[in-house]
Amino acid sequence: TRELISELEQKMQLESKNLNYEEAARLRDQIQLIENFYFKAQKVVSGDFEDRDVISLAVEGEDACSVIFKVRDGKMVGRQHFYLQNVEEKESALILSHFMQQHYSLTDDYPNQILLPEDAEEQQLLESWLSKSAGHSVDFIIPQIGDKKKLVELAQKNARYLLDDLLIQKEKR
Predict the structure, then answer these.
(1) Pairing label, strands 52-60, 75-85
(2) What share of the chain has pLDDT > 90, as a percent?
(3) Three-class SS of residue 139?
(4) pLDDT computed for residue 44 by the predictor
(5) Which residues of 5-17 are buried (b: 16+ CB within 10 A; e: fewer)?
(6) Residue in 60, 15, 18 with CA at minimum distance from that of residue 164
């Protein structure tokens, strides 16, 4: 978004320099619309402008739900959830590890940090693989206090809510 705004600003200045004021005004209006949408649509969750994913998991019986909050430049830009099946009698650390392997093998959007509620199985190996794939360091953090801890707790509540909803729908069927 910042790159787009910067590009539009350069075009606006060029149009103004060329005395094409109507086009410059149109570009100015576009910039304002983008800025308004961008800043209103995204909630600031971190003042450090770090790119991070917040991953959480809820498990019950053979079903599980994983939630990922995507935080980019300190702003919440999206939430994804995934239902997992056949997880019965598996440790949550193993489920979390397998989920992250699958998720990050299908994307090229790697954060600098991944916040987790607990250690994942073979966490150091996974961290090394992600860092290599990303081309930069990807650190796993299990926050104990503060805003990061609150984000993980919120992701956990979301995962639990979505899993409960899935289980209700299964029961209805």
Answers:
(1) unpaired
(2) 29
(3) strand
(4) 52
(5) eeeeeeebeebee
(6) 60
Torsion 29-33-38-40 (CA) sign: positive
Helix (H, G, I), strand (E, B) or coil at 120: coil
Q: Of 4 and 165, which is predicted with more confidence?
A: 165
Is residue 81 within 8 A of residue 67, CB to CB? The reply is yes
Could you write out the three-class secondary structure of 38-85? HHHHCEECCCCCCCEEEEEEEEECCEEEEEEEEEECCEEEEEEEEEEE
**Which structure tokens are listed for 97?**
């590890």
71-120: pLDDT as tens digits: 887 778 888 899 998 888 888 889 999 999 999 988 888 899 999 998 87
Distances (CA, A) of 43 to 18, 65, 66, 85, 102: 38, 24, 21, 32, 28
The pTM for the full model equals: 0.70
Q: Tell me the C-alpha distance between 26 and 147, whole Å.
A: 40
